[in-house]
Amino acid sequence: MSPTPPRRLRLGLPRRVFSQVLLMQVAIAAGVAVLAAGLFLAPLSHQLDDQAMHRALAIAQTTAQQPQIATDLQRTAPRPDGPVQQQAERIRLATGAEYVVIMNLDGTRWSHTDPARIGGHVSTDPSQALGGKEVVGIDEGTLGRSARGKVPLRDAEGRIVGAVSVGIAYDSVRARLISAIPGLLALAGGALAVGALAAWLVSRRVQRQTRDLAFSDISALLAEREAMLHGIREGVVALDRSGRVRLLNDEAQRLLGVGEETVGRSPDDALGKGRTADVLAGRVTGTDLLTVRGQRVLVANRMPTGDGGAVATLRDRTELEELARELDSTHGLIDALRAQDHEHANRMHTLLGLLELEMYDDAVAFVGEVVGDHRTTAEQVTEKIQDPLLAALLVGKATVAAERGAALRICDRTQLPDRLVDPRGLVTVVGNLVDNALDAVAGTRHARVEIELRAEGRTVVLTVRDTGPGIPAEQRELVFTEGWSTKRPPAHGKRGIGLSLVRRLAERQGGRATVVEADGGGARFTVVLPEALAEPGPDPAPAASLGAVAEEGAR
User: Could you give all domains of the chain from N- to C-terminal order, each with its CATH number?
Assistant: First the structure.
């Protein structure tokens, strides 16, 4: 069995965000301090060198301006006790220079710090100074590295008779530079301490805001959040403190009919003025707020967040609302059938009594009258309204109206061909208006609802009148607002959607829906639907005749 290999010690960043941020910021502060110190020391060194060279040049210039030195250089020999050496030493001691060297045109020294070197040739090239130029620089000579200044030495008549070379010890420059380093390090250390304290405060704030999670945990949470937001079948819209959309998932885009371009815009700009924008912006408050967007019925809830923003959730209630309305219609039909069953039983009892009394003629007349009433109602509807869906709806509504003690009448001017572009849409409009009218006349005397449907070219004009209490003028626009209703909510949910859907369907086709006071009291709703009828097709009768002629010719 082979031995287990030793585990390698792996060094890396700590997992906690607090530690990572603190470490990185301290490292940045230290790097900035070192960089600042280096940037300060580099020009300081050059500045000190420049100052030393110009100081040496100034001493050399002052020395060269003394005429006695030029005279002594020409008249005396280079000796350690000569007048030139004495004057040079006096100047060196007075100025603190490292050396003051005076030479003739051949480069022979007349003065030097080391008397033994007097009479020897200079160690550096004096040609530029002897040529009349003033020279500064850092040179390596017999006394080591120094900042030098060289100038020509002229006699009283201005002729160059030699040169003066003055040196400033480079060690003094270095000493000044080194002496500046402790103060600089103290400043850098203070800056680093302040930076570390600021880094600690920032890290603590980051720790509180990130709840001390690791960066990997935050990344995983963001990935999970993205997957969750775009995977759930509920619309989510996040808004910032300024009321602009910050995020919306795929379902919210589908329900609202918008795209990613909505991000960064306000609900009013992205969706237009309306109840949906009001709900998202928080101008309408409450829970399970109903709103209509296009053909969809949405349930919205809005929850404020700690940073001043909000998160709104949207649920699609369109199918549920349709099912609820179908359930209401089914309940109505069941009640109507129950009433008809009761009425049918009474009629059967009446018919049985007539037969037992052997009043056969009266029995036949009674059956004919009952059957004729039902046939007349169905024939009247189908004669004026040729679309089967709409006709079936009105026949059923007539039965429901009769059960509720109201009369549903089809106006004599009603005439609608079977060329509807959107039969289901018109069925929704008529059904909602009739239901609204039947609710309005419930419990009133002589309750009556009148429907008029007529075609004007390709435009369909629908009018529904009722004998109810009517709608006050100041509320005639509010009745078309989502969620507004004066009736008790049904068992399955909330009211205030039907009339809003009516207006939405009308406006989607470029039409309109209005309500005014009806003649004699009550309300009159009018819906105009342009382009609701298809172009009339060819008359089928001539085609049949031609087919018969062709068949006859074939025989």
Answer: 20-176 (3.30.450.20), 234-316 (3.30.450.20), 383-529 (3.30.565.10)
